[in-house]
Q: What sequence folds into this?
């Protein structure tokens, strides 16, 4: 049974192969022959190397160099790739509707003149070669004659002069385009993603060479200084150069001095194994101030043309050393900073250190590291992560208002305050080298502070002096403002507020599990409004980093007038844990100031406005006479 099935399948395969070989192959051959028979040109147009188009007394000559077409007549200039590609395709795929022999014309009493082919209105001559070979074949010429009577086609004489083809007018339309329509009007063709360097050279005698180089995604100056360049400004300038277009070619009334002889500015772009250079000459008198027009040439080409450059782009190129320079002083990624060290005259150094843990918001936690006195080791305090994050953002965005100097003298540095800087901020990054930013104040003051990076960089920048106020070296400015944030399992079970001046108890109540107070002279709503501020105790501003019985504040000694005792019960696996938290309070000093002190947190601080207002209601509420009664 299997043998019969195998033989049947073998027979069917042989039959199918015979059908394909005998019939399918012949059908495809016939189709290819019919298609080739309609083609006017064959192998002679396979790989075009040159084109010459003659219309009347006008001749356009083009040659291909690599993959790019260039005009060699009337001037040497790149051709529009899309327009030339359309002409090449028209020639390579040119098909006739019909054709007839030239030899038959005499028998019908006709000649080439009857078809406009004795003196054709347009001729195209081209050379071609074998793909991959440098050898060029003999020239091939096509002559285009009159339009057919229906006005839809035209007559074309074959290269050997033996047949007349009736072809579409699309070829004639493509070949009839003028130089202005066929030339490329772009100046630079290196896109920003390919650009490797930007070179500028200003006019003599004070000629200045500026070179910017790209390394990965970063741009930097190589000459006349070594400095970071602004990626955005540089790439915007390159995009602006790529947007430049030829305004017009100058064939008469040329300036006395060509741009190549006396350039006002040379602009060079380097890409992948290619370089393009624009040479600007004198300004054209008829140009506008918004888009000044200049005479220009391309390096290595004699064609003279005019070009309009936007005033903003021209200004950036003329002032490239400043306009394209990175104004941000620090190249800083805030997420990689591991420590910040502050040094200021007559003050103890301060260090902010990043911890491995995160806070409740998921941000990195920070601590303050203080030097100990004598044999005492360093002390640490929790730092305000939000304040540190704000500082790092400010430092990463710190920008120069002016590039003051790249080669300062010692006297200049002393005048700008660098002999004793107001701030030295050292930033240490993860797996990176420390960077120290020095900030000085000049004498006399001129409205600026001055900054520089310690080390190899000599550059000095004028900056906003506000950065000094934003970088205090007082540890209290960086201390964590949240002193207490009770967990969910903890609750306040009792409150007692005592006036220390006379021992009178202003509030003394137990609190139920749901926060309801026992009977008290203070309204239950006022106590309920107080509890959230005690559960999460915040300092508006720290006054001292240690507890004291009295504190000098606002020019006077302040003693503690009240003591607020809060009994806190924490329920956990070990049962209930009960503790008492003391908070000492001064009298209300002003509408938004009241001092507090805590031995538990070893600090003196100003309380926040919501807590201040709520305490006022509890302390002064019983003595409030209420609104004044209206007169009868």
A:
């Amino acid at each position: 049974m299997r043998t019969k099935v195998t033989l049947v399948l073998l027979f069917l395969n042989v039959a199918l192969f015979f059908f394909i070989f005998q019939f399918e192959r012949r059908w495809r051959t016939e189709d290819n022959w019919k298609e080739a028979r309609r083609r006017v040109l064959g192998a002679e147009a396979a790989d075009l190397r040159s084109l010459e188009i003659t219309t009347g007394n006008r001749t356009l000559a083009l040659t291909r160099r690599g993959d790019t077409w260039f005009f060699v007549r009337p001037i040497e200039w790149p051709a529009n790739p899309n327009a030339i590609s359309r002409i090449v395709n028209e020639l390579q795929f040119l098909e006739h509707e019909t054709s007839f022999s030239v030899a038959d014309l005499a028998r019908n009493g006709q000649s080439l003149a009857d078809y406009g082919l004795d003196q054709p209105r347009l001729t195209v001559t081209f050379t071609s070669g074998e793909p991959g070979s440098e050898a060029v074949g003999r020239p091939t010429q096509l002559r285009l004659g009159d339009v057919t009577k229906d006005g839809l086609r035209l007559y074309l004489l074959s290269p050997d002069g033996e047949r007349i083809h009736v072809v579409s007018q699309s070829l004639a339309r493509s070949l009839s385009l003028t130089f202005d329509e066929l030339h490329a009007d772009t100046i630079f063709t290196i896109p920003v993603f390919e650009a490797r360097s930007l070179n500028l050279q200003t006019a003599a005698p004070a000629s200045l060479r500026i070179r910017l180089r790209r390394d990965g995604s970063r741009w930097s100056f190589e000459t006349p200084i070594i400095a970071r360049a602004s990626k955005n400004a540089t790439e915007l300038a390159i995009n602006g150069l790529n947007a430049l277009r030829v305004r017009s070619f100058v064939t008469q009334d040329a300036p006395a001095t060509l741009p190549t002889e006396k350039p006002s500015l040379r602009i060079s772009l380097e890409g992948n194994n290619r370089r393009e250079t624009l040479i600007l000459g004198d300004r054209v008198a008829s140009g506008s101030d918004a888009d000044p027009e200049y005479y220009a040439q391309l390096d290595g080409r004699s064609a003279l043309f005019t070009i309009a450059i936007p005033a903003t782009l021209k200004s950036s190129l003329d002032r490239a050393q400043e306009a394209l320079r990175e104004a941000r002083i620090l190249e800083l990624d805030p997420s990689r900073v591991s420590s910040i060290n502050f040094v200021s005259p007559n003050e103890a150094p301060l260090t902010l250190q990043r911890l491995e843990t995160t806070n409740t918001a998921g941000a990195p936690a920070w601590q303050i590291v203080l030097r100990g006195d004598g044999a005492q080791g360093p002390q640490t305090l929790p730092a305000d992560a939000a304040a540190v994050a704000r500082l790092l953002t400010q430092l990463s965005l710190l920008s120069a208002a002016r590039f003051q100097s790249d080669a300062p003298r010692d006297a200049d540095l002393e005048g700008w305050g660098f002999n004793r800087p107001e701030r030295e901020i050292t930033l240490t990054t993860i797996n990176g080298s420390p960077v120290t930013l020095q900030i000085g104040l000049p004498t006399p003051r001129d409205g600026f502070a001055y900054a520089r990076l310690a080390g190899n960089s000599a550059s000095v920048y004028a900056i906003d002096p506000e950065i000094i106020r934003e970088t205090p070296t007082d540890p209290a400015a960086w201390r964590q403002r949240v002193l207490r944030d009770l967990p969910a399992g903890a609750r306040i079970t009792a409150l007692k507020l005592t006036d220390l001046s006379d021992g009178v108890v202003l509030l003394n109540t137990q609190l139920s599990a749901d926060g309801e107070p026992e009977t008290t002279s203070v309204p239950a709503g006022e106590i309920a409004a107080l509890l959230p501020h005690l559960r999460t105790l915040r300092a508006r501003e720290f006054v001292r980093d240690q507890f004291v019985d009295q504190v000098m504040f606002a020019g006077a000694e302040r003693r503690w007038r009240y003591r607020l005792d809060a009994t806190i019960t924490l329920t956990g696996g070990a049962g209930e844990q009960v503790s008492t938290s003391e908070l000492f309070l001064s009298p209300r000093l002003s509408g938004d100031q009241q001092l507090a002190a805590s031995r538990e947190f070893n600090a003196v601080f100003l309380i926040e406005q919501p807590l201040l207002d709520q305490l006022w209601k509890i302390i002064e509420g019983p003595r409030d006479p209420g609104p004044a009664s209206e007169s009868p």
About this structure: Residues 334-474 form one domain. The radius of gyration is 44 Å.
